[in-house]
Amino acid sequence: AQKVTQAQTEISVVEKEDVTLDCVYETRDTTYYLFWYKQPPSGELVFLIRRNSFDEQNEISGRYSWNFQKSTSSFNFTITASQVVDSAVYFCALSEAYNNDMRFGAGTRLTVKP
Amino acid sequence: GAVVSQHPSRVICKSGTSVKIECRSLDFQATTMFWYRQFPKKSLMLMATSNEGSKATYEQGVEKDKFLINHASLTLSTLTVTSAHPEDSSFYICSASRASGSLQETQYFGPGTRLLVL
Q1: Which one of A50, A89, B3, B60 counts the least CB within 10 Å of its CB?
Q2: Are A104 and A95 in contact (CB under 8 A)?
Q3: What is the pLDDT of residue B2?
Q4: How far apart are the C-alpha atoms of B12 and A6, rounded to whole Å?
Q5: How many CB atoms lie within 10 A of CB B13?
Q6: Binary contact (B95, A47; C-beta < 8 A)
């Protein structure tokens, strides 16, 4: 069964700092998908990215970037020049290709202070 | 993009009553829908997976008779919390995907329903 570990429970940074959220996963499948979601206080999950296991290219979207390394089973998420609006809980998740179950990590609560 | 709605967004009920939560895919046909539960400051835990027209598959530890799931159409799944008790108070989130049995499709999440049982 798949497993996702987000070791950082809470992170607090000051605005404009860069911050990296770690995600380590376990799976026996060779084909799988990795996700990051943002959950603001309202509770609604905001989809950030989906990456399949065959695509190890790093991705950048504005201030967000993701580093996928199969060798270390990690899919880390970096926010550059953080802003107060980035404050939320961030979840990493994994889903195996032929199994629609999505397993979430415990989440990392990010607080960005002005 | 794919939109999933949930109704109600928030519900308060008395202990012993039953509560129904609806999950709808608004612009696509969802062959598979998922129900998650999230306790305060905790992660999302998958409760059950339902495929349209068939019985839901429950995760270990989830009471089938307590959490009734119906997926009667390709756009609607319902979760009924029967004889609710205060410990059932939680944030319930549904998601929907197009695929069933084939390569995994993205799950689209609803906005969640906050249940408070007094």
Answers
A1: B60
A2: no
A3: 76
A4: 32
A5: 16
A6: no
What are the tens digits of pLDDT across the range B79-116? Answer: 999 999 999 999 999 999 875 445 556 788 999 999 99
Pull the structure tokens for residue B112. 């969640």
Which residues between 6 and 45 in chain A have a beta carbon less than 8 angstroms from any beta carbon of chain B?
A: 33, 37, 42-45
CA distance B96 to chain A (A): 10
Closest CA to A96 of B46, B42, B2, B62: B46
Nearest residue to B34 (alpha-carbon basis) of B60, B64, B8, B58: B58
In this complex, is the C-beta atom of B6 within 8 Å of any C-beta atom belonging to chain A?
A: no
B46-62 per-position pLDDT tens digit: 999 998 888 899 999 99
Q: Is the pLDDT of residue A97 over 80?
A: no
